Amino acid sequence: MLKSKHVILLFLFLLLSFPLFPQQAFTVVTDSMGITGLDGLGHSIGWCDIDNDGDLDVAFSNQNDDSFWLFRNDGDHFTKITNSAGLGGLNAYRIIWAEVTGDTFTDLILRDWDGYQRVYRNNDGYFTLITSSLPGIVVAAADFNNDGATDLLSLSSSATYILYNDGSGNFTTRTIYPYSNSFTCAVCFDYDLDGKVDVYLGTYGGGANKLLKNVEADSFVDVTVEAGVVWDSATSGVTAGDYNNDGYPDLYLGNNSSPGCKLFRNNGDGTFTDVTNSAGVLGHDDTRTAEFVDYNNDGYLDIFVSNHDFYVYSNQMYRNNGDGTFTDVGSSLGLSGQFIGDYFGTAWGDFNNDGAIDLFAVGHIDKYVLYRNDNVPGNFLTVKLVGTQSNYNGIGAMLKLWSGFQTLTRFVIAGEGMHDFHSFPVEFGLDNTPLVDSLYIFWPSGIVQRLYSIPANQFITVVEGITGISEKLPYDFYLSCQSILVREYAVFETNIPLNLMVDRHIRIYNPAGELVKSIGMDGTSKRFYWDGKSENNSELPSGVYIYTINTKKGMFRNKLILVK
What we know:
Elements: H1 2-17, E1 25-28, E2 42-48, E3 57-62, E4 68-73, E5 78-80, E6 94-98, E7 107-111, E8 117-122, E9 127-131, E10 137-142, E11 151-155, E12 160-165, E13 171-177, E14 183-189, E15 198-203, E16 210-216, E17 219-222, H2 224-227, E18 235-241, E19 250-255, E20 262-266, E21 272-274, H3 276-279, E22 287-293, E23 302-307, E24 315-320, E25 326-328, H4 330-333, E26 343-349, E27 358-363, E28 368-374, E29 379-386, E30 398-403, E31 406-411, E32 426-431, E33 435-442, E34 448-455, E35 458-463, E36 469-471, E37 479-481, E38 485-487, E39 490-494, E40 501-509, E41 515-520, E42 527-530, E43 543-551, E44 554-563
């Protein structure tokens, strides 16, 4: 009996001492993947699949004003192709990727240290210069007028511009904010989910950051104060993403100023709340970069930041605890420590296609570092979008996924911060869920695609209007509410012919995609009335709701804000 107890105790000791599963960690693989022969201090970086072969290639530059490199991903290693790709002899202050010339290859938008804003057409891996005279510094790309062509956001010492693209790489400059405010970084995202991409601008000096709401073509309104996202001192990193899985994009600022960083939670009504301290993500006052990323595939976006003080606090990886708080686990993952960090540019993307998102960071201390994300515990689904009526890269699309008890919302964003460009494919962490119940893609064109029963741990490509079930609202019909802002009571009207209606009902959904009310039409008047209550006649909370109607030509969908 005594011997048996000793055996059991020994087994328990071994079990506790040696985990059954390897611990997650980020492994430096820069040299082993063939990324060598570099010099100077790292500066700007961006992932992109330049040859449409299904894996991510990478471009980056140094701060010495003399080098730019392009490496092709060949599976088990990277190959330097800068010269053979037609890009030899360049330098780069800012690197942006976006398809702007009307084909199916993603082009390079490069601002050099000599003051030229260049656009290079991608001819299946070989690049040719089409212009070097665009104004300002291009810091992000998006389709601001939803015409199917990717436009560019540019910052100068005198104004903020949108360079509207005609679809073939010809740009028309429009001023959207007539002051500079020393803006140096930006993120373009639809903060109020009205279908139009808005702009948040960060300053590197003492000027105030700005949130510019996209009202209509060429018309942007400063809503910084009323939205509650005021900050007026040195933002170097800015990122947008839905960290609390409520369906709305939140905002995180990596600040180079006291007291530190800022986390603004989106309230879903056009305003934000500063939850920095309660979330535990204040960080430090010399942050260079900041990104939302689900590094452990648990379905919650975490926050990675890099700081200038590499001696003391280096980088942080704030793990999302799922309850509105975060815990710094950077050191245990191998992402933080003395002489690690001071990154000026970061790019997240799954370069080895194993379902775990990796990090390429460039900066002043370890200069050029490719971190492979190993032993990730959760399941995943990676979605590549191919636009047909929308822009080719799907920039500005919203993806909503239902899996088990989770509802995840992700956005396609092209360019964040000062020198960060992450990969286009959208990576969903699914935790332990083996199957995706449904996936909805809301394209900038208005097309909505639905896919159902998708097994986890795979890569899928969704072509706009082709993959899955697609629907688009015919422009000659409408379903509208008397106002987007509804107090207590709503009246809906439509001109859809009765013979095209499937069941003469509109359906109202909450932000989680749950049906809260089905309303029948009032006779033949084509009017619907809603008292702001659910099916069981209980009061619904204030917030954004989606209303739809099924027709033989597809589903009509719109949004209202219920205020009580």
